[in-house]
């Protein structure tokens, strides 16, 4: 009777405590997720792999605690990181996951943010019409929810998209609206961005004085607030203007300033742009040695970012494989424990029934047949119970052997999977070494003779005597033979790679 009253009371207490425990866990999870996402946001340009890991930890924490807002923010942060290293397909995948969740859970702030981020990807891929569609959708939501910073950003993004599309009147209208809103919000960074956007707009219209005015204001404000990203953009914009004015020396000075800041602050995309434009500038000036140096720096930085992202993806796949293996093993162990508990309950219930029957029988025999019949029946009943226990012991021992054999099979299967993963990793490393060797030939040995050929071709029209002409032609022939030799070596590397893949 006491047990029948005690169990319902315990269940009621547990059910009453569970919601408060869940709420306490969620309150603890909020600052932890915030910390991970903020770290990823502030450090993804300097440490790509660690930032990816922090964003994924925030994503897993939000999934476990069912924190929908942090799930959307985690998808958005992962997309930003992939977008920063030009993994646009992966970035779009993460953004769309967050957008679907935001629309399903009716989270307008997150929906507007993700629509704007998707528009950024289309903008970088030169799909300007798609970018405008997504910026407009985000703009309509931000007007309803009155998210003024995002509203200003969407207006500026629309202005940039229309400017690149050539719709200059619309572009100027949106940029000036964004600039007005930035001034109301005292958003210095937004003002910098929109000054630069107006400068680009006037530069496209060949209004060079207006372009110089707004580019100069953008750079001065960036230097005043000491925002490194806007300082880099300011120098890049002024370099573009000076190149249009054919002031290549001033343009080079601006580009070198941008390169110095981006290198010290790990702004990788901006640094790549500086290196590319410096290489073009030096090549136009005929400084092929310097152009080759900047081009190699650009290639090395691009390869480094790609390798970091791919390595992070491989580590994530290994973590997922380990988690799946652990889940499978836990499921088997839980099933085994549940089966044993069921058997024990059945055995206890059977023993209780047998004990009750024995007591009832003994009582009846005491009253009907006397003490002698009782002892005789009790003796037989004990023998019967002993045989049943012996049989149950044999059955349990047999099941234990079967479980041990199953565990051995699972262990062998895990070993085989680990060997397969090790072999695949070895093959990938070998292929990477071949690709690195190919890239070395392409970046170091091909560019040398090719640059000499281009330089000599430019000198041909300037030859004044047959001797100079024959000398240049002889050098052209030597460089062409050297280039042919390098191409032959590259073909040998590629043939070796194909033979390895066939094997």
From TrEMBL:
Similarity remark: Belongs to the Rap family.
Keywords: Coiled coil, Cytoplasm, Membrane, Repeat, Signal, TPR repeat, Transmembrane, Transmembrane helix
GO cellular-component term (any): cytoplasm
Pfam families cross-referenced by the UniProt entry: TPR_12 (PF13424)
SUPFAM superfamilies: Homodimeric domain of signal transducing histidine kinase, TPR-like
Segments passing through the bilayer: 356-377
Transmembrane helix keyword on record: yes
Localization per Swiss-Prot or TrEMBL: Cytoplasm
Keyword rRNA-binding: no
PROSITE patterns reported in the protein's UniProt record: TPR (PS50005)
Coiled-coil portions: 264-291, 386-434
Main location: cytoplasm
Taxonomic superkingdom: Bacteria
One MF annotation (Gene Ontology) recorded for this entry: phosphorelay sensor kinase activity
TPR repeat copies, ranges: 72-105, 112-145, 152-185
PANTHER family according to UniProt: TETRATRICOPEPTIDE REPEAT PROTEIN 29
Residues annotated as signal peptide: 1-24
Record-given protein name: Putative ATPase
């Amino acid at each position: 009777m006491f047990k029948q009253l005690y169990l319902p009371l315990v269940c009621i207490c547990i059910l009453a405590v569970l919601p408060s425990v869940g709420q306490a866990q969620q309150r603890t999870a909020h600052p932890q997720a915030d910390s991970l996402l903020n770290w990823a946001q502030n450090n993804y340009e300097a440490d790509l792999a660690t930032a990816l890991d922090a964003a994924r930890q925030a994503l897993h924490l939000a999934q476990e605690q069912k924190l929908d807002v942090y799930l959307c923010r985690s998808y958005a942060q992962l997309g930003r990181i992939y977008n920063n290293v030009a993994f646009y397909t992966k970035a779009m995948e993460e953004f769309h996951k967050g957008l679907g969740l935001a629309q399903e859970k009716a989270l307008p702030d997150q929906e507007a943010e993700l629509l704007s981020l998707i528009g950024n990807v289309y903008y970088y891929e030169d799909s300007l019409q798609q970018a405008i569609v997504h910026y407009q959708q985000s703009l309509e939501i931000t007007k309803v929810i009155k998210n003024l910073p995002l509203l200003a950003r969407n207006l500026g993004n629309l202005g940039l998209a229309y400017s690149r599309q050539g719709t200059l009147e619309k572009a100027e209208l949106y940029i000036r609206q964004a600039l007005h809103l930035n001034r109301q919000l005292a958003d210095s960074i937004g003002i910098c961005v929109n000054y630069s956007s107006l400068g680009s707009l006037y530069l496209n219209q060949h209004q060079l004085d207006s372009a110089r005015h707004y580019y100069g204001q953008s750079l001065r404000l960036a230097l005043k607030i000491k925002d490194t990203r806007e300082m880099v953009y300011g120098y890049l914009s002024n370099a573009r203007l000076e190149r249009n004015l054919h002031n290549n020396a001033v343009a080079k000075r601006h580009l070198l300033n941008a390169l110095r800041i981006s290198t010290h602050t790990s702004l990788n995309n901006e640094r790549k742009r500086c290196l590319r434009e410096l290489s073009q500038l030096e090549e136009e000036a005929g400084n092929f040695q310097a152009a080759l140096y900047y081009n190699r720096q650009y290639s090395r930085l691009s390869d480094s970012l790609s390798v970091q992202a791919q390595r992070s993806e491989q580590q994530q796949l290994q973590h997922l494989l380990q988690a799946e293996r652990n889940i499978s093993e836990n499921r088997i162990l839980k099933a085994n424990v549940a089966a044993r508990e069921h058997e024990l309950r059945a055995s206890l219930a059977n023993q209780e029934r047998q004990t009750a029957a024995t007591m009832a029988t003994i009582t009846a025999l005491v009253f009907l047949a006397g003490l002698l019949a009782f002892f005789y029946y009790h003796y037989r009943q004990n023998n019967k119970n002993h045989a049943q226990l012996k049989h149950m012991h044999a059955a349990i021992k047999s099941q234990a052997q079967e479980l041990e054999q199953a565990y051995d099979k699972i262990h062998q299967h895990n070993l085989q999977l680990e060997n397969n993963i090790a072999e695949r990793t070895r093959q990938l490393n070998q292929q990477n070494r071949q690709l690195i060797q190919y890239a070395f030939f392409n970046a170091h040995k091909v560019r040398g003779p090719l640059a000499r050929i281009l330089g000599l071709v430019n000198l041909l029209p300037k030859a004044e005597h047959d001797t100079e002409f024959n000398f240049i032609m002889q050098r052209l022939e030597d460089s062409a033979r050297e280039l042919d030799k390098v191409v032959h070596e590259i073909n040998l590397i590629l043939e070796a790679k194909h033979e390895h893949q066939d094997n």
